[in-house]
Amino acid sequence: MDESGYAPGVSMTLGARALLSCLLLGAVLACGGGGGGSGSGGGGIARASQTPSDADLRAARAELEAGAVGLLLMLDAADAEARRAAAAGVDPAREPDVLYIATPEPVVEKMLELAEVDGSDVVYDLGCGDGRIVIEAAKRFGARGWGFDIDPVRVAEARANAEAAGVSQLVTIEQRDIFTLDLSPASVVTLYLLPELNVRLIPQLQELAPGSRIVSHDFDMQGVTPLEHVTLRAGDRPAPHQVYLWQTPFEVAN
Q: Residue 131 contacts by C-beta under 8 Å, 6 or more apart in sequence?
């Protein structure tokens, strides 16, 4: 803890929040104008084609204010989640192991299709980002989903997305270190990590019940032969996306 009373990671989030508040306030005030409207000022000649009307300025200000409120509420939620996680023993200074890149929706669909997810499944997404995989599993199949991420901002975003999608009763998002999790309650585990992190998870994945499915976007698991491997194109990325499927129990090659 530092002198602010918060753990270091939380203080950094609060600092970012304060800076964002100042920037957004400045933008809102700028859009509010000085009350000069769209007329000329200081002897200049008004040019209607370039000067926004009072109505345009009010609309822009309202849009900025709404965006500011949404962003600040999300950061408040992230602050609260970071404090809860710190109290639960999650290291607030723990950095994410990978850079967050969202899985395109067609790849999400393919992952869930390969895993043959249905309403009886419990889906764990390790490094859930904005929560899209467990949210889609809940929306499409009625599956229960648990998303885990080390980043409190992502946790807050994923919870907000689950609420907006109307599946918060099926989806739980927690700030956790995925390498400390008991994965045994899951019947499906989804991954978008790195090859060495997939390998690091092998001992935990071996605790899954027989018949559980593991699906990874882009990266395989060295020493474990996949049951299926498909390639598809999605979005603007030149390289195709890879999806790997394993099923428990599996053997690890020496």
A: 125, 147, 157, 158, 159, 161, 162, 171, 173
Distances (CA, A) of 205 to 32, 113, 178, 220, 239: 55, 20, 11, 14, 28
The amino acid at residue 115 is A
CA 109 → CA 53, 167, 214, distances in Å?
45, 17, 15
pLDDT tens digits for range 98-157: 788 999 999 999 999 999 999 999 999 999 999 999 999 999 999 999 999 999 999 999
pTM of the model: 0.67
Joined tokens for residue 4: 């602010």
Peptide bond into 92 cis (omega under 30): no
Residue 175 is inside which H or E element, if any?
strand 171-175
Per-residue pLDDT tens over the stretch 19-44: 555 656 565 555 554 444 443 333 44
- Reading the block at residue 67, the tokens are 């965006």
Beta strand 188-191 pairing with 144-149: unpaired
Q: Please state, in angstroms and rounded to a whole number, the distance separating the CA atoms of residues 146 and 71.
A: 24
Angle at 13 (CA atoms; ends 1, 134), nearest 5 degrees: 110
Architecture of domain 105-247: 3-Layer(aba) Sandwich (3.40)
Query: Could you give the strand order of the β-sheet that contains 188-191, starting from the edge strand earlier in sequence?
Result: 171-175, 144-149, 122-126, 188-191, 213-217, 241-247, 228-232
Displacement of CA 66 from its chain's centroid (Å): 21
Q: How far apart are CA 247 and CA 68, in angstroms?
A: 45
- The SS3 call for residue 126 is strand
**Residue 230: strand, helix, or coil:** strand
Residue 91 identity (one-letter amino acid): D
